[in-house]
Amino acid sequence: EVRLVESGGGLVQPGGSLRLSCAASGFTVSSNYMTWVRQAPGKGLEWVSSIYSAGDTYYADSVKGRFTFSRDDSKSTLYLQMNSLRAEDTAVYYCARGAREHTSGWFYFDYWGQGTLVTVSS
Amino acid sequence: EIVLTQSPGTLSLSPGERATLSCRARQSVISNSLAWYQQKRGQAPRLLIYGASSRATGISDRFSGSGSGTDFTLTISRLEPEDFAVYYCQQYGSSPYTFGQGTKLEIK
Predict the structure, then answer these.
(1) Looking at the predicted structure, is the pLDDT value of residue B34 above 90?
(2) What is the pLDDT of residues A35-67, one digit of tens each?
(3) pLDDT in tens, B64-94
(4) Does A94 touch chain B (CB under 8 A)?
(5) Do A106 and B31 form a contact (C-beta atoms < 8 A)?
(6) How far is B59 from chain A (nearest CA, A)?
(7) Smallest Cα–Cα separation from B52: which of B36, B70, B75?
(8) SS3 of chain A: helix, strand, coil, percent, to 5
(9) Strands B103-107 and B10-13, how do they pair?
(10) How many other CB atoms are found less than 10 A from the CB of residue A43?
């Protein structure tokens, strides 16, 4: 059974840092495309970052240069290091697994964790 | 960035009725790489449809997706009480991978 469990959220002051974790089970993290998606309170979904199996990472412009997506294959765990946090980063952060569409080769998100809440406030 | 606009913002229907949700892209979605997700209050999104029309594993055949290019539709043929939720479309063929603003399906 595929399972994703996020942790590490909490209250942080503007300008501060936080590291989110996503523990994966039921599949091999190193062989999969993984992503972070966030949702501000009462708002819609926003793609944040993705990592390919080869380790290439991509970021939304809103977080580029401040967030870093990494993974520890030995622990089947993904990380999102968030620095220079702003009030607008306040959201529930979800990690999700990508599944490759056979026809196009692009990745949709087939399994999601339950999310972890990050609140940036003084 | 591909902007997705969903309509209506809120849809009020009764159980047993048919729901039609729209997602329109400002530019063509590459390879019809369009997904639909359902999100209930306090829960993570759940994949319903990918590739515009393919149902995800375990999804009821009451859910169907259609469309191509810039216009896509999610249809729920006979609404069940558990279908009342917020629905998002998402394009995943072009970075950044954008979502629509959501359609709230509520009980009339």
Answers:
(1) yes
(2) 999 999 999 999 999 999 999 999 999 999 999
(3) 999 999 999 999 999 999 999 999 999 999 9
(4) yes
(5) yes
(6) 12
(7) B36
(8) 5, 55, 40
(9) parallel
(10) 12
